[in-house]
Write a structure and sequence with these properties.
alpha+beta; 4-stranded mixed β-sheet; 5 helices; 10 strands; 29% helix; binds calcium ion
Length: 205
C-alpha cells in the first residue's frame, strides 16, 4: 500500500507539475497573436483597395483643359474686312466733253443735194479718244444718224461727217444721204453721243 501511495503521490506531483508546466506551456497566446497579426494584415489590406477607387475619379477633371485652345482662331478674322474703297472710277464724263461739235457747214455748194454739207468734230482734250460707237445725229429731224467705227481722234485734231462725200483727210465719214441733211432756212441742231449714249455735245446754227 505504501507503494501505491507513493505512486499516487508521485502521480499527483506529476500532474501538478504537469499542470504547472501546462499553464506555462499553455501560453499559446502567441498563437492568437498571429491571428491578430493576420487580422491586422487583412485590415491593412482592406483600406488599400479604396484608394484605387479614388484614382478612377482623377481622370475626369483633365478634359477641362481643352476649351482654352479655342480662343486663338476667333481673334484673327476681324482685321481684314475693309479693302473695298474703290467706287470712284467715273472720270469718263470729262472725256465726254472733250470732243465737241465745232462747226456745221449747212449750206452746201453742190446744187440740190448739198452733198458737201458737213459737221466738224474736234478733240479739245489732251488725250486721244477712240470714237468707236459714238453717234452724230440731226436731233431736229430725228434722222439721219451716223455711228462711228473705231477711229482714234488725236488731241487738237478735227474730223468731218459729210452729207454724201468722202474726204479721207477729214476721216472719210459720210451720212451717205441722197438729199440735204441740214436745212438752210430753219435752223437745225446736231448732237453727239458717246458709246454709252450720253450726250457729249450739241450745236445749232
Ligand atoms: Ca443745207
Amino acid at each position: 500500500m505504501r507503494r501505491a501511495q507513493v505512486i499516487t503521490i508521485l502521480l499527483v506531483v506529476f500532474l501538478v507539475t504537469l499542470a504547472a508546466c501546462g499553464s506555462t506551456a499553455k501560453s499559446p497566446t502567441p498563437l492568437t497573436s498571429p491571428t491578430t497579426q493576420g487580422m491586422s494584415i487583412q485590415e491593412t489590406q482592406s483600406p488599400t483597395p479604396t484608394p484605387t477607387a479614388t484614382l478612377t475619379q482623377t481622370p475626369s477633371p483633365t478634359p477641362a483643359s481643352t476649351p482654352t485652345p479655342t480662343r486663338t482662331p476667333t481673334s484673327t478674322p476681324t482685321p481684314s474686312p475693309t479693302p473695298t474703297p474703290t467706287p470712284t472710277p467715273s472720270p469718263t464724263p470729262s472725256t465726254v466733253t472733250n470732243v465737241k461739235i465745232t462747226k456745221i457747214c449747212y449750206d452746201g455748194l453742190v446744187p440740190r443735194t448739198e452733198s458737201d454739207e458737213y459737221v466738224e468734230l474736234t478733240n479739245l482734250g489732251s488725250e486721244p479718244l477712240d470714237l468707236k460707237g459714238w453717234v452724230l445725229k440731226d436731233i431736229s429731224e430725228g434722222y439721219p444718224s451716223f455711228t462711228f467705227p473705231s477711229y482714234v481722234l488725236q488731241p487738237g485734231k478735227s474730223i468731218r461727217v459729210y452729207t454724201n462725200e468722202i474726204h479721207p483727210e477729214y476721216g472719210g465719214f459720210s451720212f451717205e444721204s441722197g438729199k440735204a441733211v441740214w436745212n438752210n432756212s430753219s435752223p437745225d441742231t446736231a448732237a453727239l453721243f458717246n458709246a454709252q449714249g450720253q450726250e457729249a455735245s450739241r450745236k445749232s446754227y
